[in-house]
Amino acid sequence: MNPFMATCFENRAWVHSAIACLEQEAARSADTHLLKLDMAGFPGIHFYFKDESSHPTGSLKHRLARSLFLYALCNGRLQEGQSVIDASSGSTAISEAWFARLLGLRFTAVMPECTTPRKISVLQSLGAECDLVPAGVDTSEHARERARAEGVCYLDQFGLAERATDWRGNNNIAESILTQMQKESNPIPTWIVCGAGTGGTSATIGRYLRYRRLPTLLCVAEPIGGAFAQAWQTRAITETKPCNTIIEGIGRSHIEPGFMFDVVDKIIEVADVDSCAAAWLLEDILGRCYGGSSGTNLIACLQLATAMRDRGETGSIVSLLCDRGERYAETLFERTWLAQHDIVLDDALGELRQYLGQDDGMIKR
User: Fold this and answer.
1) Own/partner pairs, 360-363, CB within 8 angstroms, 24+ separation
2) Could you tell me which residues are beta bridge partners of residue 290?
3) Rounded-to-integer distance, Cα 321 and Cα 326, Å
């Protein structure tokens, strides 16, 4: 065999081994739980929450990170020994760092300097370099420039999220939800609710629902002023403005390439104080902490359920519990930090508990 062919086979052997490693991990991880909640104030309407925090890396982004590595490997962009870099608000970076360590690769996370300390410490424990950039610096462009200058593989979650995931199946999140719903009393959800960071999750769910020819509608839950909400209303993509939110992972200040407007049926904007109150309430209901975007999702679900109830409709609503709340112990679950950001929970949390009749009207299953 000539030297050129030998080198090609040697390189391909590592790629094959890396893909096999990722497939083995997917089999070991199995699937995440689908939790059911019945609320006394919403008779005939069933709520389901897919607990994506139970992934090995603690968030919904575990699926995306695996897909991004597979995409880079199968497109010839990632080779043995090559370092990897990506831009992230934290959760994707944690999942990417975990997979990079699994494959024996160095990883750098480019993140805003305001990223929660817990996320930074988790990344460092996984052996990742944290490149923290000040407000106003585009993390994606910074990561792209570093990749060019250093010859490393840029995973590009914001640019590739909607295409790296197989939206027609392969146990993507939409297929997983609908499979788990099969034996429920309302197996075809009326609504599925998710947030939008990269736009990849909403793109996957929206396309899969159409592919399966289902009547289920897709709602994106956004912080007030988020770029996706602004542009979805007007389709004026270039006229977005910064979104001042404390909810990490969602509430983008500009439209990401992976967001697909035409597969989204509704966008609900949620105030940060309500998202935080709902995140605190989720701990009371489920006995575990979840991040702020999970609270945003809950508020959107309640608005949709209220409209269904007022119209005399019944059915099911499915949403996501996106990541572990422990990552926000010093921020969203710290009253002093919240007060510094003009968030006072007492009134919002009291109103939410009263609205739900939490004391005697919530059944956890």
Assistant:
1) 360/40, 361/39, 361/40, 361/41, 362/37, 362/38, 362/39, 362/40, 362/285, 363/37, 363/38, 363/39
2) 324
3) 13
For the chain, counts of helices (H) and of strands (E): 14, 11
Tell me the C-alpha distance between 169 and 212, whole Å: 10
Model confidence, pTM = 0.91
pLDDT at res. 9: 63
Pairing relationship of beta strands 107-112 and 217-223 according to DSSP bridges: unpaired
Nearest 5°: phi and psi at 110?
A: -95, 115
pLDDT in tens, 175-208: 999 999 999 999 999 999 999 999 999 999 999 9
CB 291 within 8 A of CB 323: yes
Rounded to an integer, what distance in angstroms lies between the CA atom of residue 336 and that of residue 349?
Answer: 16
pLDDT 10s digits, 250-273: 998 888 888 999 999 999 999 999
Q: What does the alpha-carbon distance between residue 128 and residue 286 come to, in Å, rounded to a whole number? A: 32
Average pLDDT over residues 156-169: 91
For 121, other C-beta atoms within 10 Å of its C-beta total: 12
